[in-house]
Amino acid sequence: MEEKEKVEEKKPLLRLGETVPDFEAVTTHGKIRLSDFKGKWVILFSHPADFTPVCTTEFVAFAQINDELVKRNVKLIGLSIDSTFSHIAWIRKIKEKFGIKIPFPVIADLDMKVSNLFGMIHPGESATAAVRCVFAIDPEMKLRAMIYYPLNVGRNMKEILRLVDALQTADKYKVAAPANWKPGDDVIVPPPKTQEEAEKRLQEGYECVDWFLCKKKLPP
Ligand code: BEZ
Hints:
The chain folds into 2 domains: 132 residues, Glutaredoxin; 47 residues, Antioxidant, Horf6, Chain A, domain2 (Antioxidant, Horf6, Chain A, domain 2), CATH 3.30.1020.10. The chain has 6 helices and 10 strands. The N and C termini lie far apart (58 Å). The site of benzoic acid has 9 residues, from helix 2.
């Protein structure tokens, strides 16, 4: 077998809509299993390295949205290929410099077990550090969204909250979120699947551009 194929074999691509693999990991809050959080949404995110500038701004920003995530039944979990001692020292430094307590567990993935399981290592960016991933995992442990950012661009916390709101709203009301949707905006009614449904669609009281693009308001 070719060397490249062997490497590919070790890193199965996670696919949206599939159950994520469970794992046990050492974190700054002790040992956790992903399945400990079944019944909650999980935002699992990786950062390339402790004590680096962009990651530090991201950690402060993730800590600042944690309360909003908790309100939405979301558990935030961080990860990097650093030791628990490094995580603890960095978290203490963040508290000292920014006055911000990091409220979520951070996985110390020194053996890259979780990073490889979730495809967080992109050798074109770095062979030894995880890229900036965000995995949105639903209460049944299904992977619902993935975001990948490179080493040199920090993520947008408003977009992460928007993604959670959009996924939860889509599930609750069986609708879809249009481009740039935010809570309070109209949502998209799933398009008709048959000719008969298409013919009825324009008489159903929705705001339609055409039979395949109709929006509705949600209850306040
Ligand atoms: C940073 O967080 O600033 C960073 C981390 C890894 C590589 C480059 C930048």
